[in-house]
Amino acid sequence: MKKRFLSAALTVAMAVSMTACSSKPAETAPATEAAAPAETAGEETEAKEAAADTGDKELITVGYAQVGAESDWRTANTESFKSTFTEENGYKLIFDDAQQKQENQIKAIRSFIQQDVDYIVVAPVVETGWETVLEEAKEAGIPVILSDRMMQVSDDSLFEAWVGGNFVKEGETCGNWLADYLEAQGRGDEEINIVTIQGTIGASAQVGRTEGFANVLAEHSNWKMLDMQTGEFTQAKGQEVMESFLKSYDDIDVVICENDNEAFGAIDAIKAAGKTCGPDGDIIVVGFDSVKAAFESMIAGDLNATFECNPLHGPRVAEIIQKLEKGETVEKIQYVDEAYFDTSMDLENILKERAY
Ligand code: GYE
User: How far is CA 94 from CA 17, 62, 111, 338, in A?
Assistant: First the structure.
């Protein structure tokens, strides 16, 4: 009884929340999944009174179209949303894992529109192909916020704001780090053979990191990019790609992995091939994200460096939503500051402070 009562109270609270949401036409208001049980008139009145009596706050419904669960970074990102968008904080979160498929994300966005959520948040798998579904969200009056990866759309009024990492800068930081590292080892003028295990092709994190590293590569005529292939941001695919690189090239000096999980896979492949890596090894291995396991790998002497990308976007998106709720303007593009870490640092102590 109590549960049904509460659900009815929430239904009322949500309906109020939806009509109160300024960015939304009033006609599109009710029809949510929570409205499903057909309560009797008496119960509804009871519920309304309960909502008024307890001063229940209206929950803001947020649909989050997540990429998948391909990496430690992604797990931390999901956790950040789930711990931020809680009922205690005034939200109802509808979470969808697209298993790294754009078609699944488009389906999720359409279902959020059907459920008439208050906000849609998307971490787009790839950058292109979103215009139609964003038009549909706009038509329904539902604001869209992008987080993590970016979308390329001709009309940027199709989304309210974007918050994420500066991927080009991350790639450049990686290239500059490599230049300094080789220089310090007295290898600044040596011929350096590089391979890259890229992220999901067409994803902002892949596009930006590849571009950023290429900018630095262009400044070093003695660096040679032997090959680039996607490892889909997963450890398993990273390992597979590295195995094939090691079969094709016997003189790899550096492997750039576009996330840490691919680097873990690459390290396994290097060891299985009877080679060594890390600061004292044959092959320099670097990753992106700076997840806890990357610190462990550096401490173990396997990974050389990791370029940070912060996944804790839940509170950042919540701040954007709170501003929009108050009718305030939000900054359209919001980059998060990021650092890098390598084996010259006091990694054990830094690791103690890491949140992901
Ligand atoms: O680097 C990777 C994840 O888009 C920044 O996606 C994100 C990337 C991150 O799978 O680990």
Answer: 16, 6, 10, 29
